[in-house]
Design a protein that fits this description.
Shape of chain B: elongated
Helix content of chain A: 25-40%
CATH superfamily of chain B: Winged helix-like DNA-binding domain superfamily/Winged helix DNA-binding domain
Number of strands of chain A: 7
Strand order of the largest sheet of chain B: 1-3-2
Distance between the termini of chain A: 43 Å
Largest interface: A-B, 43 and 41 residues
CATH class of chain B: Mainly Alpha
Largest sheet of chain B: 3 strands, antiparallel
Radius of gyration of chain A: 16 Å
Structural class of chain B: alpha+beta
Structural class of chain A: alpha+beta
Largest sheet of chain A: 7 strands, antiparallel
Shape of chain A: globular
Order of helices and strands of chain B: HHEHHEEH
CATH superfamily of chain A: START domain
Oligomer: heterodimer
Strand order of the largest sheet of chain A: 1-7-6-5-4-3-2
CATH topology of chain A: Alpha-D-Glucose-1,6-Bisphosphate, Chain A, domain 4
Chain lengths: 147, 109
């Protein structure tokens, strides 16, 4: 049956400290999530992920345990503060793997997202279109040679 | 929270987050269409509770009921479940893309 959990993993040929920087430093975050990022890196600190086409998404830092654990709760609807009914939890775990790092991401809380009766069809359509745009950009970014 | 029939995967996940509804759906999926009375006999819940949960499942588009004499027979409608699974698979694929981007950034430093 369905589970309310997404779990993915990748092995990176760089030490955890280096992966930690890619995950938590504003200039690097915009390379994998959004186009611009503001981050106050401490539990309870605010994050704003801005997509030039889709607006800003607010998030709250949950745990900061360098270089092992970083998590945040991000609001799925653009422009809204993260609350219990609109946010999912994203948790990154870093563990040494030889000379490199095993990076795991777990996103949970989809079942708790509240669905507004009136707007949900429209909202889902907009989200889907937004994500399709963003995916294309991610692919372009990922396929560009490293600067 | 009210849920209407529709393609919203979040609604489907919220409905499925309840263990009794999950059991009911599994019963219907494995044992075929059944009435509330039959289902209540197979699960440790009252018929009244089964009827209530079937109502939620019906509104979410996960089961459809058809009248048979004095009872209603419920059958699984797999469409919304498949859409929700597809939605989650899509989100997982997005994470794969993001992890690949993180790898690229970390390895280029």
């Amino acid at each position: 049956m369905l589970t309310d959990r997404i779990e993915r993993e990748i092995v990176i040929n760089a030490p955890p400290q280096r992966v930690w920087q890619a995950l938590t430093e504003a200039e690097h975050i915009s390379g994998w999530f959004g186009d611009a990022t503001e981050i106050d890196l401490r539990p309870g600190g605010a994050i704003v992920f801005t997509w030039s086409k889709c607006g800003s998404h607010h998030a709250v830092v949950e745990r900061v345990e360098p270089p092992r654990l970083f998590s945040f709760r991000w609001a799925r609807p653009a422009g809204e503060p993260a609350t219990e009914g609109n946010a999912t939890l994203v948790e990154f775990t870093l563990s040494p793997d030889g000379a490199g790092t095993r990076l795991r991401v777990v996103e949970t809380g989809f079942a708790g997202l509240q669905v507004s009766d009136e707007d949900k069809a429209v909202a889902v359509k907009e989200n889907t279109e937004g994500w399709i745009d963003e995916l294309g950009e991610l692919r372009e970014y990922a396929e560009r040679p490293a600067a | 929270m009210t849920l209407r029939p529709g393609p919203d995967p979040r609604g489907v996940l919220a409905v499925m987050a309840d263990s009794t509804r999950c059991r009911l759906l599994e019963e219907l999926a494995t044992g075929g269409a059944a009435t509330a009375t039959t289902l209540a006999a197979r699960l440790p819940v009252t018929r009244q509770a089964v009827v209530k949960h079937l109502g939620v499942l019906t509104r979410a588009g996960l089961v459809t009921g058809s009248r048979e004499g004095r009872e209603v027979r419920y059958a699984v409608h797999t469409g919304p479940l498949a859409s929700a699974a597809d939605w989650l698979a899509g989100l997982a694929a997005e994470w794969d893309q993001r992890l690949a981007a993180i790898k690229r950034i970390a390895e280029s430093g």
